[in-house]
Structure formats: structure tokens, C-alpha cells
Amino acid sequence: MTETPHTWRDIANGRFDVEPKPLPSYEAPQEDELPGPAPEAPAPAPADAGRRRTWPIVVTVALLAGAAGFAGGATLDPLDRGSDREARAAELRGLEDDLDAREASLTEDQADLAKARKKVTKQRKALTRQEKAVATREKAVAEAEQELTDGGTGTDVVDSDGVFEVGVDVEAGTYEAVAASGDCTWVQTDDEDSAVPPGDEQTAAEGETITITLTDGGFFRTTGCGEWVAQF
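Above: the chain sequence. Below: its structure as C-alpha cells.
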């Protein structure tokens, strides 16, 4: 008796240890008898029997792999990558805006500094002019003091009638007087005893204000004019 192969149900259900079904017996028909029905052939094993047993494993492995890919592939999502690029682009734009603002502020500071430098330059020039003016005045004062130290006897007030040598008896300069009487006369000559040419002597009415300029090297004569005061 020959063993029959396992059926597809046995293979699918993993039953490999079942007792094989015996093949039906066959006896030669008698000559005087009609042949009986042909014995039933064993059902062929399905071609996908092996695959039906392994598909649960394949599905399980695929699900696990998919879950792992979903968990580990979150950062690989194109949407996530796009959001990250947008965030970095926004951060870069913010840095560029901050840089532009700082450059503008620096430009304003430089302009203010240039204005301040110009102002300081003008102030320095004005101070230099003032220093020069002060130096000139100090020099003039020093020269006047030196003349007095050298023994000059000149005065800046003429309060009487007479003949005065300019630079010795009276200082050179501008003088002013208010005529004390109607006989006020004055004149400048080159020599103390020289005669006064006609028309050179000046006169003034009483109460009239007179202004004259005395120069070094000459002589000044005055009569009835009262007090002459220097107008330095």
C-alpha cells in the first residue's frame, strides 16, 4: 500500500504528522463483469500551500518595518524639511535686518562725529584768534610799561596853558577838551620857539568840545582852553 501525499489543508494547518490516507484498493475485474468506477485520484496539493503559511510572518515583519520607518523617518518628512528651511530662512532674514539697522546707526554716528569735529575746529579757530588778540594787547601794554620804566615823563592830561613837547611833556595820542572861555586857542609847531604862521592857530568858542591828535616830535601850545584829556 502506498502512502498518499498530505492534503493542502494539512500543509496550511501545519499538520504534518497525520496518518496518511490509504489508497483505495484495486482489483482486476472479472472478464464477465463490467469494470467498476475508476478509483478517485488524490487531490493535488495546492501550489500556494507554502505561501499561505508564511504570509502572517511577512505581514508582521512589514508592519514592524513600517512602524520603525514612521518613528525614525519623522525628520525625513518632506514637510518637516520644508518647515526647517523656512525657519532658517526667517532667522537669516532677521540677522540681515539687524545688520542693516546696525549699519544705519553707524552711519548716523559717523555723521554726528563729523559735525562735532567741524564744531570743534571752528571753536579752535575762534580761540586762536582770541589768543592772538590778547597777545597783541599784552604786547602793547608791555611796550607802554617799558616806556614808563625807561624814564618817560609824559602825561595824558594837560590842565594848564603853556608849550608842551609831545612824547616828553605829554603823551602822543588823541585829546579832547571843552573850551573854558572864548579865548581858547591851540596849535602844534615843530619848534618850541618857532613863530606860528598866520592861520595855523586854532580857536574855539566857550563850551565848545575840541578834539585834536598829538604826534611825537612836535610841540603843543594851548591857551584858555582848560583841561585836555587823552582819549586812548
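The CA atoms of residues 33 and 63 lie 64 Å apart.
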